[in-house]
Amino acid sequence: MKTAYAIVYCIAWPFFNLFHPCRAIGREHVPEGPVIFCPNHTRLSDPLFVAFALGLRFRPQVMAKAELLEIPVLGWILKKVGVFAVERGKSDVGAVKRAMKCLKSGDKLLLFPEGTRYKDGKMGEAKAGVALLALRTGTPILPMYIPPNKKWFGRTPVVFGEPYLPRAESRHGSAEEYEIIARDLMERIAALEAQAR
Predict the structure, then answer these.
(1) What pTM does this model have?
(2) How far apart are CA 143 and CA 147, in angstroms?
(3) pLDDT, tens digit, for every residue of 126-147?
């Protein structure tokens, strides 16, 4: 998987960097161990902006909507580089187990907490899944901000916030605590917008 990721990265980066170069802000906040990257989501290209802002040193596994992995050829490539499917709108136990295994083994995970794109640039509400994963694996969340408008041939800033461990009164957290953590996460992401200007 690491080799496939490196090959695809090295092939795609020159083209992407030519048309949509990105500028990483706060990348020093990325820890060496497991972490959950949580950016806002406005464009299909957002995962690429995250990957290239991270560089080859930090390779995340990616939770993505199942429809993407069903696309011929593209789906095969995505699976090879560490993308796995989640069925949106339902409790996908298999995806949750895969994500927990990823984090417990020390890998990094990229997921979009809103669960879908908001093309108008506004932020939606985060789903409870990220809170569940963080609490049950003891993994820090790293909020990220990507501007909705990406100019051709202009550098798009990708802002990394500081990682933090959410807290809950109960051992694994309650549904109410998940909602509180999810709201707090979106507030932290929104607060990063100022650094992208």
Answers:
(1) 0.94
(2) 14
(3) 999 999 999 999 999 999 999 9
